[in-house]
Amino acid sequence: SHFQSATPMSVGKGTTVMVSMVRDTTDGDVVYLYDADSARGNDRFAFRAVRLRNPTDSTLEPGPVTVYGDGRFIGEGLTEPIPPRASVVVPFALDRQVVVERTQDSENQIAGLMTLSRGILRAEVQHLRRTHIKLTNRLGTAATIFLRHTLQDGFTFTRSPEKFEKVGTAHLVEVSVPAGETTTVELEEATPTERTLDLNQPAGVAMVRAWLEGSGKEEAFAGQMKALLAVHTEISDAEEHIDNLRQRLGDYRTRMDELHAQIVTLQAVKTGGSLMKHLKTKMTEISERVQGSTIEVVNGEAALMLARIRFQDGLAELTIEQGKAEGDAAASAAASR
Hints:
- This protein has four helices and twelve strands; from the N terminus they run E-E-E-E-E-E-E-E-E-E-E-E-H-H-H-H.
- It is of the alpha+beta class.
């Protein structure tokens, strides 16, 4: 085969050069690329880019790409390796017409229960990471925007737009934004782990409560857990009520000290009889409030102690197998009737 380039090239003395050349037409269009993670990207604006397809059966190596439009130079970019018949998005200019706001958050969610013994729960937990991307198109025409997102090892998408393709280790998610409008995209990824949760601690209780809010749970076990969580809510409400009472008692005692000081001061004034009477009446009222609140605190602490014992006793007796067995027994009884 013989190939002849239309332009000369330089080969340094004592060096060898291997050149691959292709001249062909291919599919392509002008789009936008948002890449907040790479060194050449921008976390505030999307780059104007060209999307083109490798029309050959060979991999196109990384290198510079010069972009011309309407017979003139409009930008230059760098490509990654382009596999055969694959597409690539090459950014070449930052025109600030597509504004991006990105926020991220994460949480853990129970995916399934494994074992439960004396309040210690082993569960399958999904670690979720969410990325919220708000795209504002300032152009007078609709814009096609590709969002570059790289999944960490072990993570998979659990929520994303339908249109996306994989380029190397990254995913390109395609989004269309009408002229002058704003679109929000949510990307959710998850990785499974195993965790041990202490249901005597607020964090463990919160995760189980969130898990029970989903559908498809085993009814017998879920019913018993919901009953225990109702007791836990009772404990939390009682603790908050007692804290409020103690804070109120502190305010009452501070006011009583102020009234006592004022009464002592008025004892040296002969014309302060009516005010003295008023202060003593107020002192009596606050003293009665202190007494009533103190009794309420004692009663609340007693009720709190009983609720804690009920919760700990129920938690110690509950197992996943017990909930399943009781559910099977209930089903058998219903069938026999």
